[in-house]
Amino acid sequence: MTELFEKSIHTLELPKVLELLSTLAVTEEGKRRARELRPETDPDQVEKRLKETSAAVEMMVLRGSPSFSGIRPVAGSLQRADMGGSLNTRELMDIARVLGAARAVKDYGDGDSDRKTVIDYLFRSLHPNRFLEDKITTSIVGEGELADSASPELASIRRHMRATESKVRDILQKIISSSQARYLQESIITMRSGRYVVPVKSEHKNEIPGLVHDLSGSGSTFFIEPMGVVKANNELRELQAREEKEIDRILAELSAEAASFKEDINQNYDLLVFLDGIFARARLSMNMNAMEPKLSGRSTILRRARHPLLDQRTAVANDLTLGETFDTLVITGPNTGGKTVTLKTIGLLTLMTQCGLHIPAADGSVVRVFQRVLADIGDEQSIAQNLSTFSSHMSNIVGMLEETDHETLVLFDELGGGTDPVEGAALAAAIIEHARACGALVAATTHYAELKVYAMTTMGVENASCEFDVETLAPTYRLLVGIPGKSNAFAISKRLGLPEHIIQAANERINAENIRFEDVLTKLDRQRQEMEREQQEAAKLRQEMEQAAAKAQEYRDSLQKEKEKNTAAAKAEARAIIEDARRTADQIFAELNDMKKKAKKEGDFQKANDQRADLRRRLNEAEDKLGAREEEAPPPMLRPAQKGDTVTILKTGTQASVLSVSKDGILQLQAGILRITAKQEEVRVVQGETQAQKETRKYIARTEHKLRSLGAKAEVDLRGMTTDEAELVLSQFIDRAIMANLTQVTVIHGKGTGAVRNAVHAYLKRCKGIAGFRLGRYGEGESGVTVVDLK
What is the Cα–Cα distance from 481 to 354, expressed in whole angstroms? Predict the structure, then answer.
């Protein structure tokens, strides 16, 4: 990386972005590496970095962020341990934290094994060592402190130490509690030189025999170790020496074991720091609401790009293109209009991409990878080198042109400024042409009208401007590609209160060609605004039409799905009904044969009739599945019945033929041997049956004629019927009973007004198959039933 490239990196403010990145890293090494991150020039490496960042973003969305806390450098400690050195407790705990973090991060990476990412290999490369981690953490309870459980020997030593200390304190406590307490300066037990002593008044120092270990500053107190505790104190010192020796042995053992895994632990540390950097890039991406751009070897296309250091809530997003249909972009417009920000946005987003960072732009953005990005932006005046602004800029530009080639992005701010406008404009155009001849992509800002004309008349060079609202005297920061900018000096001056005659005088000093050029720009800007409004309205209408079309298609799809679902259900239901009817009919045929055989052998007609009635009930249930299913509301009337139609009487389910229709809509029906009347709403025209119903009724009809002569119920319920309906049902019931060889049946007609009872008795009197009938007795239903004897 050349000095100019590094200088341009600072000019475009990449270090500020990297500082934001470093604050999102957890480890100190990760923060340092984030600040030192530099653009990669190999497209494959740039692609790899971007994919790593995208993978980390996806993992954080699904699983949150892994923990990298507590990770400190351990390479130096491991190197010393490998050379035979003994590590202290803090160094060993740092190693244990690295091992713990490696274990936790590896578990995090293995959390969703079904999803494959480009950073899976980093998680797989981690080598946790739970045994060593637990051994260190259980042996060391704090910095400089080992647990008793670190070794059996240490536990034994400390147990003896506690016993000896207790013994010494007991002896000294007796002295404090005895008559010798008056010789003491204070009734306390203290320590001097690691031995337990008592404070004795200087005038009584000979009253308590022992060893003097210290003297107070005033000389009034002697710290004496009584002779009675000398032996115990000596024993305690020996135990303390043994404790220190055992601690040194344990630390040396742990250090040697850590050194034996030096390579794995160092690799864990490097991988954790590397992953910390990747996930810091992911956090920055999420904070900026950024995305992964596609890479190109030809052009840069930025959609709704924002400068990453501006507040994303207020920053104006712009579309920028360079290298697609033109290789040079000349940006014009008033000061503070956003020209320099636009220039920096192009350069900074390019550098961020080559660092593997996502950029604050919309989907569809494409960034070209350059070998170098060179920028001349800002006030380059140097007092120390006695250089003017123009000279400083030109010195910088000279160096940039020396390094420019076909893999360079060149950014010029106020090119040719700081000198005579005519010469400066000519010089600026010549510099741009030289950079283009080298194959570089160029973006430049300027105030010169000559460069606007140059851009309009030169193939491969495009004008752009930063929009300015003259009414509010404020820039909108919108970039308008294809439209040269106006300085708006006269309009701004007028709004600020400059007298009209001064503005008019200034206007007269401008030559006619420049005036016409400015008028053309004004007209173009007005047309551009009108076109934008029309485009926005058209886009709104198109969006509404697309939404309406999408809703209509969704509704059609749902209707089609519902139709297919209902059709499939109906077919399945029909198949089930047919199969059920078949099974029922087959079973009935089989049982009918058995009943015939038994009837011939036994001759018990009443018992046989009960069995036949049960079979008839089961056949009726099969028929109900096809027809009635559940008691529902009557079907809708498709059309009124006409003469010659076959209708179904809703009350009884009986079919009848329509003989005639009166003027008031009363139908004359023929049902078997009976003629009855009915209203239109009491019948439904038979429209035909489905194939499934026809096939089922074939099975039912095939057995029904046999059942008519083999099975019947011994009673019939006529309650709730009209006299005509009751007579029809009674006729069918008596026929079946006679065919089934029944001798006695019961007709339930209820008490009520007696109309149905009278109709029943009238029918029975004229029926030839009746031997006699009577009203029911007590317990049989009394006058609510009629008991009929059959011949």
Answer: 25
